[in-house]
Amino acid sequence: MNDEVRDIWNANAEFWDGRMGEGNNFHLKLIEPVQLEMLKIAEGMQVLDVACGNGQFARKMASLGARVTAVDFSEKFIAIARSRESKNIDYRVADAASAADLNKLPSGHFDAVVCTMALMDMSDISVLAKHAPLLMKKGGIFVFSILHPCFNSGASTLVHEMDDLSGQSEDRFGVKVRDYLVETERLGIGMAGQPQSQYYFHRPVSAVLRAFFNNGLVLDAYEEPSFRDIGDSERIFDNVYKNIPPALVCRLRRG
Ligand SMILES: C[S@@+](CC[C@H](N)C(=O)[O-])C[C@H]1O[C@@H](n2cnc3c(N)ncnc32)[C@H](O)[C@@H]1O
């Protein structure tokens, strides 16, 4: 399955890079500010960026003074990332589901490990959950963001209802959730027009966190960013996710 997932990311890499550039609306408005707040990048900080994609967040962290090792299992994404600014960034092809690949990284070396919007794209998170604490310095942190498993996954449907309240029409936006506790995989579209559908791996929040708790990490920050401050939109996605978070961001710490 992991090979199939990798082939799809390789097929989508160029298209994805064209749309993502140095960050799209979702990243720049919702994810990046929260992750940077949790990471508190300082000059010379050693950061491992797992599943770095085209490297946009690695470049952001390097521009703030971090020394970044950025890995992805897609050779295409790493080639794209390497073709951009790479000062203070060491890009490598590595599979986060492979113990052999993660063992090639220096142990006890990183102040922070970050994984941006990618755990729900991984067929297996247990290997990363086991190795991340070993790669971190004592007191090191693991910051990750994912699509919110409660409200933005294959187990949810976006809902737009309109009521006529004594002549006043009112729009209501929400999410219908089913089978939340069932771990499933499904094909979906991350960006309209992408060449191939990609796999999403739905796990309830408890399953994601338990993988890390079982390896000695503790949760010390949790945020649920939304489009609350964004004005009116035509898109049901933006309207639903004003008062419901489409993503969550966590910081775990090595005790
Ligand atoms: C939604 S993209 C996010 C990329 C980047 N972190 C960002 O925020 O722009 C998901 C990434 O996860 C990578 N990925 C999925 N499974 C992986 C694995 N087992 N090991 C390494 N990278 C993986 C994909 O190649 C893809 O680059």
Describe this entry's structure for a reader.
The chain is globular and about 65 Å long. The chain contains eight helices and eleven strands. α1 (about 1-20) runs parallel beside α4. The protein has a single domain (about 1-145, about 180-235, about 245-255), classed as Vaccinia Virus protein VP39 (Rossmann fold, 3-Layer(aba) Sandwich). It is of the alpha/beta class and about 260 residues long. The chain starts with a helix and ends with a strand. β1, α3 (about 55-65) and β2 form a beta-alpha-beta unit. The model has no long low-confidence stretch (mean pLDDT about 95). A seven-stranded mixed β-sheet has the order 3-2-1-4-5-11-10, with helices on both faces. S-adenosylmethionine (SAM) binds near residues 56, 74, 77, 95 and 121.
List keywords for this structure.
255 residues; alpha/beta; seven-stranded mixed beta sheet; two-stranded antiparallel sheet; 31% helix; 31% strand; globular; binds S-adenosylmethionine
C-alpha end-to-end distance: 33 Å
Order of helices and strands: HHEHEHEHEHEEEEEHEHE
Uncertain runs are none
Number of domains: 1
Task: Bin the helical content.
Answer: 25-40%
Name the average pLDDT: 95
Structural class: alpha/beta
Note the beta-strand portion.
25-35%
**How large is the radius of gyration?**
18 Å
Would you count the extended β strands for me? 11
Task: Chart the SSEs and their pairings.
Layout: H1 2-20, H2 25-39, E1 46-50, H3 56-63, E2 67-72, H4 75-82, E3 89-93, H5 99-103, E4 110-116, H6 126-135, E5 136-147, E6 156-165, E7 168-177, E8 184-188, E9 198-202, H7 205-213, E10 217-223, H8 236-240, E11 247-254
Parallel strand pairs: 1-2, 1-4, 2-3, 4-5
Antiparallel strand pairs: 5-11, 6-7, 8-9, 10-11
This protein binds S-adenosylmethionine.
